[in-house]
Amino acid sequence: MISDPQVLDFIRKTEDSYPADSNLATAEDNRRNYDIMCAAFRAARPEDLPVADRRIADVPCRIYGEKTPVFVLYVHGGGFVVGGLDSHDDVCAEIADATGLQVIAVDYRLAPEHRWPAQIDDVAAVWRAVERPGVVVGDSAGAALVAGLCLRERGGHEPLGQVLIYPGLGGDRSWLSYSEMAEAPLLRTIDLDAYQTALHGEGLVTDPVARPLLASDLSGLPPAFIVTANVDPLRDDGPAYARRLNDAGVVAEWRNEPELPHGYLRARRSSDRARRSFQAIVAAIVRMSLGGK
Question: Residue ranges of the chain with pLDDT lower than 50?
Fold first, then answer.
């Protein structure tokens, strides 16, 4: 499944502090393990990059860089249960430094204490309050929120583009990746079930903003850059959404990353594969941002 020694080292380092069963633990224990793991990978911010914490629309946010005409809204992953401003701090700082754009990270409310739609409400509130053209970027659960935001804002204050990094978009569990990668390192199909229960309870989720692949009409949405990890139960969601967008007349590019598992952004400094993927993500953000200049 994975033979790249750099990727295998990344998986081992991750599992040293974040065992597979963390996703099935209590939210408190899961967050503690996740925070320890993220701290182990966290890199120093680029020198001279101004960073400030403030509330926007009463939602905690972290702002990287000075104000620019076009900004990047970053929505972190973590299954809607873990993660926050610190977990993806270095990713956001590096995006701001590499693109020259101001990045605003959103610390949306987490499940199970806050059920859906609290998360998308927070993200949408920040997006609307900034009132500038922007590119929206998210990884994993954050990518689902980004896709949902684009659906919510269609015909209104629409993003210039959406960048979805190993997104979970409500794909059909009969799809191959959910069985073929059911026991993939760093994210298993059983973990997805636990996270969905924390977010929505036991009921059937039919809201297309929560599961964008259920949307009957995807026309008029912003251009999309979708990148998936090949060793990931969520892998098949990305190409399915790209096809649906293309069929609706929306420009959508899909990129799949061989031998990389879910969560590989943290490996961008130690894995050549992850580094190249991160560079492609940065390039897509820059391309999309030019639509607002």
Answer: 293
Catalytic choice (90, 139, 232, 236): 232
Would you call 262 a catalytic residue per the annotation? Answer: yes
Catalytic residue check, 140 = yes
pLDDT score at 254? 98
Domain count, the chain: 1
> pTM to 2 decimals?
0.98
And the tokens for 233? 């139960």
Q: Report the alpha-carbon distance of residue 31 to residue 258 in Å, rounded.
A: 29
Among residues 140, 177, 271, 289, the one annotated as catalytic is 140
pLDDT of residue 111: 98
76 among known catalytic residues: no
Neighbours of 236 (CB within 10 A): 21
Distance in angstroms (rounded) separating the CA atoms of residues 151 and 145 = 10
181/190 Cα distance (integer angstroms): 11
Closest by alpha carbon to 78, among 145, 162, 178?
A: 145
Boundaries of domain holding 41 = 5-292
> What is the model's pLDDT at position 24?
85
**DSSP state letters, 59-77:** EEEEEESS--SSEEEEE--
Q: Are 210 and 117 in contact (CB under 8 A)?
A: yes
CATH of the domain at 138: 3.40.50.1820
Q: Is the separation of the CB atoms in 262 and 229 below 8 Å?
A: yes
Asked if 111 contacts 117 with a C-beta cutoff of 8 angstroms, the reply is: no
Inter-residue contact 106 to 167 (CB < 8 Å): no
User: Among the options 262, 271, 277, 289, which is catalytic?
Assistant: 262
Enumerate residues 6+ apart whose C-beta is below 8 A from 106: 59, 61, 73, 74, 75, 76, 122, 123, 126
How high is the pLDDT of residue 291? 85
Comparing CA positions, the residue from 208, 54, 59 lying closest to residue 127 is 59
